[in-house]
Amino acid sequence: MEIRHLRVVKAIVEEGSIVRAIDKLHLTPSALSHQLREAENQVGAPIFFRINKKLVLTPVGERVLSRAYAILGELDTLQKEVKELIGGEVGRIRLSTECYTSYHWLPAMLRRFNADFPHVEVSINFEATHQPLPKLLSGHIDLAITSDPVPETALEFVELFRDELVAVVPAGHPWTEKPYVTAQDFALVNLIIHSLPLETVTVFQKLLTPAVVSPAKLTVLPLTEASIELVKADMGVVVMAQWALKPYLASPDLRTVRITPEGLWRQQYAARLRNHDYPLYYESFIQFLAQEIQF
């Protein structure tokens, strides 16, 4: 089991309901359900009984909760010790991502990190967006957030989190009647993507290219807000991560549709130079990303 699974079990028990656990962990309902299923699959037994819409710990769940308190307590102690160890260090982390939508969640996360590490400046290099790995190799940035690891021996990729991508369509679109869409459905629509080349676009990498399917039309539009407005006007569909859509889903004009029965997931990584002597606060920053960002 992973730390995030232990946090989910602990939050559900402490908060007394899934709804309050969702608020505490800042997860979507589907993300929490997915993590709980992952936890139960990994232990090989149910963690909760579902009784009258309530979750009650099974005997296995009681043991998991007990170990969760112990492990998370040790982790909190370790983090406190590390913070005290490096708290006096002064440094800088130059960061970039491969996607502009990541900047929706980065500022809030960076504020939380700076509260714990006030002497470490984290700067975002916007110019390196869409090409963070070459900029990392050339020394223009120190860390890159990417979902596209490459077989580059000079780099190492540390797993951060998984996020689900969904199709965004206007209200009344035929897809809203479907529980999910498949690759073949995209052959009939104008697909709006943020950037080229296509081999770096997740929906092509993981779905369309393997199925040998091309959209009826392809529109490249790097601005998320403009893409959303085209969708509202029924001029295309866009595929985006659930968390990136949060600012827009209050609109009654938009709907989301799952992609494939299992969902379209991608793994996010922190990329850094291999065999490089980084200060301790770099490792702390990567761990902070992996633990604090949950969708």
TrEMBL record:
What Pfam families does its record include?
A: HTH_1, LysR_substrate
Q: Which InterPro entries does the annotation name?
A: LysR_HTH_N (IPR000847), LysR_subst-bd (IPR005119), WH-like_DNA-bd_sf (IPR036388), WH_DNA-bd_sf (IPR036390)
Does this UniProt record's set of keywords contain Iron?
no
Q: Which UniProt keywords apply?
A: DNA-binding, Transcription, Transcription regulation
**Domain of life of the native organism:** Bacteria
The answer to whether UniProt assigns keyword DNA-binding to this entry is yes
| Residues annotated as domain HTH lysR-type | 1-58
Q: Which GO terms describe its molecular function?
A: DNA-binding transcription factor activity; transcription cis-regulatory region binding
Identify its protein family.
Answer: Belongs to the LysR transcriptional regulatory family.
Name under which the protein is recorded: LysR family transcriptional regulator
